Here is the input.
Amino acid sequence: MIELNHVTKIYPGASQPAVDSVSLTVPDGEICVFIGPSGCGKTTLMRLINRLIPITSGSISVDGKDTMGLDPIELRRHIGYAIQQVGLFPHMTVRDNIATVPKLLGWTRTKIDARVDELLTLVNLEPKTFRDRYPRQLSGGQAQRIGVARAMAADPPIMLMDEPFGAIDPINREILQDEFLRIQEKLKKTIIFVTHDINEAIKMGQRIALLKEGRLIQAGLPDELLNRPADEFVKSFVGADRVLKRLNLLKVRDAMMTNPVHCLSDDSSEKVLEQMVKNDLAFLIVTDRGQRLLGYVNQYDLRGHKGHAGDVARKLTLTVSPERNLKEALSQMLSYDLGILVVVGEDGRIQGVLNSTTLSTLVGSTYDERGGHWGRITAAGRIL
Amino acid sequence: MTTYDFIVRNWPELMNLAWQHTVFVSIALAIAIATGVPLGVYLTFNRRLADTVLYLAGIMMTVPSVALFGLMIPFLSVFGHGIGTVPAVIALVLYSQLPILRSTYAAIRSVDPAIIEAGLGIGMTRAQVLFKVQIPMSLGVIFSGVRVAVVMSIGIGAIAAYIGAGGLGQYIFNGITQTYDAMINTGAVAVSVMAILADFMFGRLERTLVSKGLRRD
Here is the structure.
């Protein structure tokens, strides 16, 4: 756990504090993102934690111990540190770079070699291929992975990361972020993650601390910042599209309407049509008795048809998994001009429906509740 | 007599002069490296002093070598060393300082601050960052300064014969006085060959000492 208590930093000769009385607690095993415009003090605040910069007033404690009472070198050897420019030592091999802190801590050669291979595997680099390479023989993404591996070398419970993926192209950044989250899932480190990218903050952070001119403006869950921005600054910082950004945080499962109106394939076409007219439904989902999605029917096809609704059902190919995030689902709806998206689990069973009504209820704005040309969808269950 | 004949006939004497040359140049370089590199490193921690020292070393280089040898005679005479090897070595040390100092200073300073920050951030002491990161990273550039100093000292060392330090310069000066072409040629060629050999040796040494990770290829 990292506790910041009225932490203040005034650089010599500066009129304004770079960090102004920031108090914050980062619980064990969480990623806390420091974010803000450049010059807001986020990097300074991070460097105060491992005492790369001396604090002016206030206190910082790590696992209950005041950092001022600890030897700064010793402190830093137990806090992982990764930066945007990576800062790999060009004259050392990948192995020696990763082994820096273990060597300083006096580990045995065997233990170091085992740890290096373990870390390389962890960051998805084949130890045999990469162990003896020099930094100049690495791509940007590979170097960044080594930087993270070096920071984790002595298995520090706490890590400080200053825009660790900032210099990577967007595609590889996504990959590194995902990999890092996967690693964090297992290792549960306590991490301070500095970024200026709100999307990265929302993706990486369990908690976000937004700073401006050295002051902590708002700290909380990503959803809180997006949903209840403390002031106009937060609102503008998270962006006019904050409603859309929330879609990134939410899963289809969170937004879908369960038990949507539908009919079974062996229901009578006439009766289904009758109910559809009565309820003003242009289309209707068709499932089998095991809730598996078969397709949909429309009023036109059912008109005059004697038999089962399943006979005239049309295939519904575009469905979505409940685990996808809402942004992807919405993008699918928009690009294929779909009024609704049927949510189907891996077993083929229908789990719910996503439409503009369910989305807007969730994100808090009002859309046409009729859901476009699909007509009104209600949580009415089977229509007959 | 051709230059070739001269070399063959005077081989033992030539070797003797070459040895003298090697000795005082080596002593001068050893002192210059032992003082220049640490001073260059120290200057990176004291920027204000750095400007002054590099400026003075720069001025030193502009003094013609013959003049410098001459200027030192009255000072060193006090200690009974107005002429001979001692003033030669001192002059060569002074000349070698600038390339060594400047390359060391520039190399240490040019280490990316992010790398230093990374070193400190993961828990190296300032001294560890200096000795395990900055200096090893700077070796290539320091070497290039040293190689300049080596070649220059061997050349200027020829002039030391003027103040009685011996060495290959003796053939050049004696040759000029006696208008003896073969002797002049021998001295000049020997100095060049020595400079080329020394540069080559230091080049090999550089390849062994400087990390493969710093090679550009």
In short: The mean pLDDT of chain B is 91.
